Amino acid sequence: MYSTTQTLSTSRNVLFVHYGDNWIRGSERCLLDLLTHIDKDAFTPVLWCNSELLADEARKLNIDVYVSEFPLLFGETTPKCNFRGYRQLISQGIEIVDNHNIDLLHANSGAPSQWLNVVSRARKLPLVLHLHSRYPLRDRITLGLHHASMAVGVSQPVVDQLLNDGGKEERCQVIPNGIDTDALLAQPVTNLRRKLSLPSDAFIAVSICSLITRKGVDLLIEACKQLREMYLPIHLVVIGEGAERQNLENQIHEAGLEDYVHLIGEQHNVVGLLRGGADMVVSGAREEVFGLTLAEAGLSGLPVVAPNVGGIPSVVSHHETGILVPEEDAHAIAQAMFHLYINQEQRLLLGQNGYKRVMEKFTISSHTAKFEALYNTLLTDPGMPLKWHSHWQMLPPIQASLKFVKNRKATAQPANDLFAKEAL
């Protein structure tokens, strides 16, 4: 499906391609913010995606939008070898490129690179691969993550995967996510205590995340249980939805925490809620390559307790804007929360530092400027457009596969290549 809003322009045309579920969460929010703030005098965006919800939001920005199903080769769903669908995606991609005189392709996740590697070479265009998560080896190979003009990770651990495979440093870079600080701070402040009928002495810790195993909400509930056993007036508020809700509700019931752990679902005014009486933000994530919500915590002037995993340390500075704890450790989370409870002065200072850090490093204006600079580099460097005979990096996938087999033999255990389904 296609919406027509074409306008004449002298700017360079960029096709953004997004693969994902039909929701607006981390990578979708990042894309919409980029589409909103990109310099329209310099770049004209076009969106191609598989989400009607994302398409509806993008149409509000008065840009051209295409919506298609995106069958993946060797993906999680059947048929796994849909070569007919793959050829159709390539044909449609070339048609969109030709219709809009596209100058550059931007894949807003790893999956679209599977067919954009071909589309870009068919029309000799630069391809930006924007990675919001880490990928298991199988996906790095089948999606062709090594073959783009430039792979951009939201944090260093994302890029390190490709570099450790043997990828070239000059074709990888980090551009941290940015948040729309003006829009978020404009959200009406909502009194959390009044909204949830909490006592005036409640110490409120908020977690903003999907209710999935990877986000570690079960660890936060266990930490809350330990703190309640110490008679702390702790209340845990979890903003988000997901497949683990029932299991988490069972855990809350078994721990007798129905009055102290509040699963309040998706909310559209998260920063307004954080600024309405929260004392801190806490994460139990088992894997996180950036953490937009942790940046939102800083914007709200709140300290963060979070595991020292993935890209979290790039957002949360230990003992400067929050406290980093060992991964998979509910007791360490509880200890850090207790420390901030009894040290109000430090808690306030960490929150103030968090606000400064966000305004210096994680604004949408900074994020957008870095992508605009990258686009200009790729469009002016004659070595960046992809061609049939160039930019293929065959050695890294081979090296990574050999390393994988060697390590598996050494451990004599099945590979634990986590979070494949989350990454696409």
From TrEMBL:
Gene3D superfamilies assigned: Glycogen Phosphorylase B
Q: Which segments constitute the Glycosyl transferase family domain?
A: 191-357
Q: List the keywords (alphabetical).
A: Glycosyltransferase, Transferase
Q: Where is the Glycosyltransferase subfamily 4-like N-terminal domain?
A: 25-182
One BP annotation, GO: carbohydrate derivative metabolic process
Q: Which organism is it from?
A: Enterovibrio norvegicus DSM 15893
Keyword flag ATP-binding: no
Q: What is this protein called?
A: Uncharacterized protein
Q: Which Pfam family, giving just one, matches this sequence? A: Glyco_transf_4
Q: Which domain of life is it from?
A: Bacteria
- On whether Zinc is a keyword of this UniProt record, the answer is no
Where is coiled-coil annotated?
Answer: none
The record's comment on protein family reads:
Belongs to the glycosyltransferase group 1 family. Glycosyltransferase 4 subfamily.
